[in-house]
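Section 3.1: Structural characterization of target chains.
Under the original work plan, the team committed to producing a structural model for every single-chain target entering the pipeline before any wet-lab resources were allocated. The record below documents one such target. The sequence was received from the expression subgroup and is listed exactly as submitted; it comprises 218 residues.
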Amino acid sequence: MIIYKVGLVDDHPLFARALKNLLSDAADLEYVGAGGTVDQLLAQGPVPDVVVLDLRLGDGTTPHENVQRIRGLGGEALIYTSGEHPELLRSAARAGVLGAVLKSEAEERVVEAIRSVARGEQVITTEWAAALDGDPDLAAVDLSPQQQKVLTRYASGQTAVHIAAELHITVDTVNDYLKRIRLRYAEAGRPTRTKLDFFRRALEDGWLPYPTRRPSRR
């Protein structure tokens, strides 16, 4: 079993104790410490697999620079927020954060989100979706109907082979469409290199619907 290391960056000690207790029953997640800043967390050892990151920190750092630093060292970040300040959520999104979870969420939902980020998966919530949807800096990208079909299928996890069979085109044609889509987004200043990037772009531009929040199990 893979055990993922989890750290917290938050300047409220209460959240550190709560997260430590929350992860104590998760056999695949190991709590490794907390700090009021990214520097304080990293002073305790290598960057964890997942850093649960508060949006607003007392040292004046921005979510963008904190997420960039964490990812540059090989970790991934999950924003832990009260749901305010969508502009800060967008700042974190531009740095490549995998998602956000509310501090008011049920405990099992928080653990599930941490596991998803540890696996490199996107965590989409209604608050996260609303923040991205309201981003004025997202340059629009127009795609042809066929490009939209390829994008939505690829972003949803289908392989080029499956897409080709479904749309009655060749695999080479699918790959050519993907190259053209990458180019269109690059020209708009929105690099799209990985399948996760394709998923983000499809959500941001409305080609895929945002998921709705599931009822909490309390």
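The chain has ten helices and five strands.
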